[in-house]
Amino acid sequence: MNAKFAASISQVNCDTQPLLNPFVHRLELNTTYEKIKTAILTLILVPVRVGLICFFVVTGWMLATVGLFGVTEQELHEKPLEGWRKSLKRLIAKLIFCIYTISGVRLKIVGRPSTKAEAPLVALAPHSSFMDSVAMVYLGGPSIVAKGETASIPFFGKLINYTQPIYVWRDDAESRQKSVKEIIKRASSQLDWPQILIFPEGTCTNRSCLISFKNGAFYPGVPIQPVCIRYPNKLDTVTWTWEGPSALKLLWLTLTQPSSNCIVEFLPVYYPNEEEKRDPKLFANNVRAIMAKALGIPVVDYSYSDCKMMTRAKEMNVPFATSLVEVRKLRKSLGLKGTEREEALVKANNYACRDCSKVTYIEFVDIMRLHSNEQLALQLFRVYDKNNTGLIDLRDYLLGVLATEEDKTTEEIVVFAFLIYDVKRNGKLTPDSFCRAVCHTLGITQEYGLQIFDQVDRKQLGFVRLEDFLTWAAKYIPHLIYSETEKPNWKNLAIYRNIDKKID
Fold first, then answer.
1. Both ends of the chain: CA-CA distance in Å?
2. CA angle, corner 170, sides to 321 and 69, nearest 5?
3. Which GO annotations describe the biological process of this protein (predicted)?
4. How far apart are CA 13 and CA 50, in angstroms?
5. Cβ(241)–Cβ(265) under 8 Å?
């Protein structure tokens, strides 16, 4: 009975819903009509639009340069612009708004924007595109909380600086703390600072849900106006996520569309109660719930750290990198998080499967000690069963889990990869197994992996041991395994050596 169930698992009609992955966007021109139309409009429409866009960008940049002339960077952060400089900012905002009109954006406004006196902060979500800045331009250029790298964008960096933004370097904890203090200072200031516009999610998603809101903007405990943005278009050419089309491709496809609809809805100002003022996380969650209800989408507790994890996995070339956010959430729901069950399996070097590259659902739940009728376990299995064959490669799952643990160094991950792909359990990796181990952890090509194998296997034994590889790697490719502050830690070999002793 188990064999039949395992063989037909891909055909089971269950009530499980696929877990949302907000960091993936697929965009393809599927029909011949769409391809021909895009080709024609690329030749006819795009050159005209690009020419006009460049004209307005350069004009806006020149005006911003004039407006900022004589203003030091320190002055720009200490006091708001006044007089003619402030009036010039509104003119620049109108010029930039023309860019969206030229690009074919048809903006529909729902609700009423608040004044700074009513709500010092504006929270815009879901954040999915560079096109979201249309709301900022419509509001006349409020100060935005933006990642520090945007200041160096040619032309646009100057325009952004004119809004007197609050820059934050997301990977720098000190920078994040400074940005929070600056938000609090401006929100409570009696000076005529512009409203502060924030993207509380902190990164782009595909708008399928609202991910976790960052708490920074909610620390001041002042009224916030939630603003929802939608793009009700047949072809979504604006969504820019971690996995999907490049910004250049999206810009090109957007410019080939006769028109692109955008709806910006200003919800009523949210006034925090005393409990929310004391608890920024509660404040953020409650605002997110109201916005999710207005948008008709769920809330999902993904965050920027999930994006970093997925990016690292992609750089390492870990199998199913873009699905690892789903895996992390499912493992937590199944009670696997914190158990180190996968690590124990790899260290034991005995997965209880005859062929770990072809594991059935029944074998999977047995190995992971899960209940076979657990719907979440089935969802986890299906993440790796993309082709609905009823079989998965258990090694992909184990490596994905271990490679994305925050406390693991690259060297430790390589050690685990050698254990995982040691098919014969003899401490020796063949060329194929070796390539899998290094290509799925160091992000190198198979061709380069084979070259490394040949250099490590000087005696042409046909296999490579981990210790030999790490000795060679520390000398010839340390940049791939060790950061500037790391040194080879031979204690990581203890696991592997102990297994070698058991085998010998």
1. 39
2. 135
3. phospholipid biosynthetic process
4. 50
5. no
